[in-house]
Design goal:
By secondary structure, this protein is α+β, with helices and mostly antiparallel strands. The radius of gyration is 37 Å and the shape is elongated. It contains 21 helices and 20 strands. Helix content is 36%, strand content 17%. It folds into two domains: 67-249, Penicillin-binding protein 2a (Domain 2), CATH 3.90.1310; 253-302 and 316-630, DD-peptidase/beta-lactamase superfamily (Beta-lactamase), CATH 3.40.710.10.
Length: 631
């Protein structure tokens, strides 16, 4: 039986087609909406994020910091070098929530909350965009491994190998070479942003700071192509950095150690110069400190201990310590008296143990209360007779006295390359009128004549004033750098030599200073016993607290830190000077008893050979000729 023929339902087919069209249209509209929403999210909501990635996904320049120049002593011993170290750096723009990343670092490395505070402080310091900031230095192998295992949790954090400043001699040269430290925000504003790209440390004190431009070198560059995550894909161009210049110092580590040993742990300063060149042979300020603590950032606790110590280890006594020069200034006052014509070498003054100005009752005491009787220049220097120099200062007057002492460097900076040096103080009428609003009194001139009163000087200034006596007025400014990349440092502002009307006056004062050490009544003769060479010296005592008129100094009634400072200056060999030494021992009381032996030990360390005799290169031509005649 045949099947019936179905009649096509056009209405049903039309409804099916319309349903499919509507469903398709809805699907298309939905997909277009999703696309628009995604575009909105990418282009508007995440605009800053993707623009940053795009900005980094291109060719850009990376700085290559230069290798810092090395520093050596005069014998080639390294006193400042660079050693490899691993540090942890962080780029804030690539770290997202960088504070949360810091929390992860502290957790991973098992650090303290104090370390977390330091890290955040370093991250907030001023810097250039996308520049990695070192937050932790000298990583151990264990710390490097912990970072590597947790790298997925630390976006923008990487371990970087770099060279870090190191001082192998530790505290020996802390006050002369100085130290490096992290660049702070104030320095960042003044430094050349191009020249210091990629550099995070800078010289803070000493030679490191004064010769920063020479030691730093010139930055190099790499043009690199990176991906969106900052990974370097390839290097397009490389320009090598220019390393910093090496500096050879005039300091001698053996003499430095000998000077430290001579001080014997006491607070004080020692500076030794070559009077013929101005080279600083030794420069000691005790107590000292380890400069390595400052290179990568010293802890708050460690810095507080140094800063608050009663012994002030951070204080450079050689350059910044201001002390009354005491009797060590008397040779310069004697030169002033001879050259101005107010006295001669044979002029005599009667010393009853004190000095009085005409029509004044006040007595200016000599240290020897019984007096020395009639005293000439030679005896006055040998005995350090205050009465003679009271009278000499009165005859000179404050104007001539200050002018002459100024020629010896008192009251001004004398060094060539020592950044921290203080100028000291050489008072004048004008100075007192400007600062104290008072006239100058005659009695104030008298006490300046023995190195007391308003006058203040540094141990370096005393060494230089003594060196001028040693080399007959020839000015050679003290300097620490012997050569810079083989070239000697130049003095752009040389000091004028001291020219006397009678050059023989230098030897008259020289002879008086020799009598201090070798005369029968010399104040420091004990320190010269057994010396195979002649020494010219002068002791001094600097008052810390004043004593009343008529009273005698009684050490048992004075606190240890209120006792007088002990000073001594000298040069040797006296007839052919090769070394000048100035010593200051805080609260040492006796210049001849405490400071003079230190000077002798330093001179012996420099001038004598292992056989205890004068080294051939330091032998006096006069002595050599005399020996030849005797033979």
């Amino acid at each position: 039986m045949s099947q019936p023929i179905r009649i096509k339902d056009h209405e049903k087919d039309a409804r099916l087609v319309r349903g499919r069209v509507v469903f398709g249209a809805i699907a298309v509209v939905f997909l277009i909406g999703v696309l628009i929403a995604r575009l909105y999210f990418l282009q508007v909501v995440q605009y800053e994020y993707h623009s940053t990635l795009s900005e980094n996904n291109r060719v850009h320049v990376q700085p290559i910091p230069p290798t810092r120049g090395l520093i050596f002593d005069r014998n080639g011993v390294v006193v400042a070098d660079n050693r490899p170290s691993f540090s942890l750096s962080m780029t804030r723009e690539r770290s997202g929530d960088w504070q949360q990343v810091l929390d992860v670092i502290v957790e991973v490395l098992q650090l303290t909350p104090e370390d977390r505070v330091i890290f955040e402080k370093r991250m907030r310091q001023g810097r250039r965009p996308f520049e990695p900031v070192p937050i932790l230095f000298e990583l151990t192998e264990e710390q490097i491994a912990r970072i590597a295992v947790n790298q997925f949790r630390l976006p923008g954090v990487e371990v970087v190998a770099q060279l870090v400043r190191h001082y192998p001699q530790g505290a020996h040269f802390a006050h002369s070479v100085g130290y490096m430290g992290r660049i702070n925000e104030k320095e960042l504003k003044t430094l050349d942003p191009v020249g210091y790209s990629g550099t995070h440390q800078i010289g803070k004190t000493g030679i490191e700071r004064f010769y920063e431009p020479e030691l730093h070198g010139q930055v190099g560059y790499e043009e690199v192509e990176t991906n969106a995550r900052g990974r370097v894909l390839r290097v397009l161009k490389h320009t090598d950095p220019v390393p910093g210049k090496d500096i050879v110092l005039s300091l001698d580590i053996k003499l430095q150690e000998a000077a430290e040993l001579a001080l014997g742990g006491r607070r004080g300063a020692v500076v030794a110069l070559d009077p013929n060149t101005g080279e600083v042979l030794a420069m000691v300020s005790q107590p000292s400190f380890d400069p390595n603590l400052f290179v990568t950032g010293i802890s708050f606790k460690a810095y507080a201990e140094l800063r608050d110590s009663i012994d002030r280890p951070l204080f450079n006594r050689v350059l910044r310590g201001l002390y009354p020069p005491g009797s060590t200034i008397k040779p310069a006052v004697a030169i002033a008296g001879l050259d101005s014509g107010v006295v001669t070498a044979s002029s005599r003054v009667f010393d009853p143990g004190y000095y009085q100005l005409p029509n004044y009752d006040h007595k200016y005491r000599n240290w020897n209360r019984t007096g020395d009787g009639y005293v000439d220049l030679d005896t006055a220097i040998m005995r350090s007779n205050d009465t003679y120099f009271y009278d000499l200062a009165h005859k000179l007057g404050i104007d001539r006295l200050s002018a002459y002492l100024g020629k010896f460097g008192i009251g001004q900076k004398v060094s060539l390359d020592m950044f921290e040096e203080s100028p000291g103080l050489m008072p004048t009428r004008e100075w007192k009128r400007a600062t104290r609003r008072q006239a100058w009194f005659p009695g104030e001139t008298l006490i300046l004549g023995i190195g007391q009163g308003y006058m203040q000087s540094t141990p370096l200034q005393l060494a230089q004033a003594t060196a001028l006596v040693a080399n007959k007025g020839k000015w050679n400014r003290p300097h620490l750098a012997k050569t810079i990349e083989g070239e000697k440092p130049l003095d752009a502002n040389p000091m004028a030599d001291i020219i006397l009307r009678d050059p023989s006056d230098w030897m008259k004062v020289n002879h008086g200073m020799q009598q201090v050490m070798h005369g029968a009544r010399g104040t420091a003769r004990k320190a010269a016993i057994g010396s195979p060479y002649r020494i010219a010296g002068k002791s001094g005592t600097a008052q810390v607290v004043a004593i009343k008129q008529g009273e005698k100094y009684d050490r048992s009634k004075v606190q240890e830190r209120h006792r007088d400072h002990a000073l001594f200056v000298g040069f040797a060999p006296a007839d052919n000077p090769k070394i000048t030494v100035a010593v200051m021992v805080e609260n040492g009381e006796s210049g001849s008893g405490v400071a003079a032996p230190v000077v002798r030990q330093v001179m012996d360390a420099w001038l004598l050979g292992q056989n205890g005799q004068l080294k051939p290169e330091f032998a006096s031509p006069i002595s050599a000729e005399a020996t030849a005649r005797e033979e």
